[in-house]
Amino acid sequence: MRTLRRGDTGSDVRTLQTALTRAGYDPGAINGVFGAQTERAVMQFQRVLGLPQDGIVGPRTWAFLMPFVNEPDPDVLRRGSRGPMVVRLQNGLNSAGFNVGTVDGLFGTRTQAAVRAFQRSVGLPETGVVDLNTWLAIAPYLDSRSILLRRGDRGMLVRIAQTALARAGFNPGTVDGIFGPNTQAAVRAFQQAQGLTVDGIIGPRTWTALMASLGGGGQPGTIRYTVQAGDTLWSIAQRFNTTVDEIVTLNNITNPNLIFPGQVLLIPANNPWGPETMM
Predict the structure, then answer these.
(1) Mean pLDDT of 30-34
(2) pTM of the complete model
(3) Could you give the 3-state DSSP secondary structure of residue 21?
């Protein structure tokens, strides 16, 4: 690709704008015109990557942009990505015990290091790229309180839910990230089997139950959590919508006041919320 700067036009600029959009930046219309908004998006991208913020797309900037050119799924995250899915990822990594630093929605070097460490811990290739397999591994650690999926929705969260449904024995059709009638029917069947409100909507309760089916803990119906500095059993119970007694029983803890950073706890995949739509 040729070096691009403000004022340039053509197919290479269109490729640039497409890559920026997939990475979570707003270059304006994908029209092949390198204007002020595209320049701002380039500079924002460069800042996340620690590159000189000159707004010029030379070989180094292109090197980081090309993976976004080649990967059409914006929910496959890598260094340079930004946006709400990066926030979900960062919160999930922190909950799993892999510190990303500030949860800012920017996929920088610290988030990349946390992803690599997490991948290593679960036996995945240490690519630093959050593809479907990595999303499936981190999914049980995502904050269920912000999950609300229904017919018509699309994206990685739908793909995760579809995979969990299939593994639980409820056929959602093709695992394509599209919440269509087959997925809705599978959700309803799953909810009925779990004694949940049968509304075909994946909210916190249904998501938590699906994650128990997906796995991610040391035993069915659990997730793993690595204790962080400042944690108490009460704060952990609040975070995961369970009780101190349940955590104590599951982990055979003799002194609830004595936990330490780095300790791995099994957390029951409970959720006390009411119907999914009452968030």
Answers:
(1) 96
(2) 0.75
(3) helix
